[in-house]
Amino acid sequence: MKVRDKIVSTATELFQSQGYNSTGINQIIDDAGIAKGSFYYNFKSKEELCVTFLSTRHEYWMEKIQQYIENNKGDQAPILVAFDFLFMMNKKEKFRGCSFLNILSEISSDNVTILPVIQNHKTDLRNYLTTLIDNEQLSDHVYLLFEGALIESQLFKNQWPVTKAKRIVESLIK
Amino acid sequence: MKVRDKIVSTATELFQSQGYNSTGINQIIDDAGIAKGSFYYNFKSKEELCVTFLSTRHEYWMEKIQQYIENNKGDQAPILVAFDFLFMMNKKEKFRGCSFLNILSEISSDNVTILPVIQNHKTDLRNYLTTLIDNEQLSDHVYLLFEGALIESQLFKNQWPVTKAKRIVESLIK
DNA sequence: ATATTTTTGTACAGACTTGTCTAACTAAAT
DNA sequence: ATTTAGTTAGACAAGTCTGTACAAAAATAT
């Protein structure tokens, strides 16, 4: 594993479990087992690492959800499987919520570097959901339920918002 | 205005615009125009201030939404006015989103002091929405849309998630 | 009028933050 | 075989952070 990848994967773990501002460069390099010089050779600042982290996470997450839906749409409508994906990810990542929304809360409102990355991620997700439902009004309805379920399951450390949202969508597409 | 209140109102302003971890005690006392000794006389730690801030914010917010709905339910169903309230608050507070969800992203998953305060706030909101709709399934549906609209309007700095959510709820209760 | 509570200003400890720098070392590419 | 790119360990700068200490002053209560 290359140093650069070690940095990103360690940062992913730490940002996700502790938050962005609570994670220092020193902890990242210690946990990754690399030298500080290597960090600043690969990234010019912590903010640049943040952007790389979010971009990497975006690629990973979008690919995962599409794969998951492709592999699990048996008798179910594909859009319902999106909520199963959320369920699975909550379990896998211990209800740590959305990396993008978490960082949104930590940056100031006028940040012009990181904010667009987060907006692009959610826009891509929203557009992807539109491909699963050919009704634009319904698609945004599902998008809002999806986002609501995502943040509320993080808050309550519980799957009920996800299963509830899924059941609602089920009744909507019937 | 008492010193204690000056601290809480200054902290509210700063936490809301910059985030919790990005706001230091020194900035709070400078902006509030009080001595550091006074801060630690009134609060034993920054975390205790955070709890007080959230509790105060909870009282304020719950009273505001109830008042707003009471005063603005003309021909509209009360639940729809809840989204007008969100619209108004977004404008008033410049799309800074929910204080509680913002802090949720900044604390670690196992925090036992602040997390319950946030959970209680959202539980109270959820229960309040139930009093506006006598259908529990529908009420949670609206709750998830409300939360989705809240976080997405913060992300996009735009009211479209709120107006969209309102129109959806409108069609649901018809 | 005396006692208690609260506030002030400032200095300080100790730990932390991001980022720079250096000199030496290793691996990869030409 | 020699240049180039990447990594290392650690010291260091300059500033931040939370929280403590102390003596004096002011406000409030009895």
Overall form of chain A: elongated
Which structural category fits the helices and strands of chain A? mainly alpha
Instruction: Count all strands of chain A and give the number.
Output: 0
Quick one: which chains have the greatest interface?
A: A-B, 41 and 41 residues
What is the helix fraction of residues of chain A, given as a range?
Answer: over 70%
Percentage of residues in strands of chain A: under 5%
Q: Radius of gyration of chain A, Cα only, in angstroms?
A: 18 Å
On the 0 to 100 scale, the average pLDDT of chain A is 96
Description:
Two copies of one chain form a homodimer. With 174 residues, chain A is mostly helical. Helix content of chain A is 76%, strand content 0%. Chain A is built from nine helices and no strands. Chain A binds chain B through residues 17-19, 21-22, 94-97, 101-109, 118-119, 122, 137, 140-141, 143-149, 151-152, 154-157, 161, 164-165, 168, and chain B through 17-19, 21-22, 94-97, 101-109, 118-119, 122, 137, 140-141, 143-149, 151-152, 154-157, 161, 164-165, 168. The first copy, chain A, binds a DNA duplex (30 and 30 nucleotides) through residues 3, 24-26, 34-38, 40-42, 45-46.
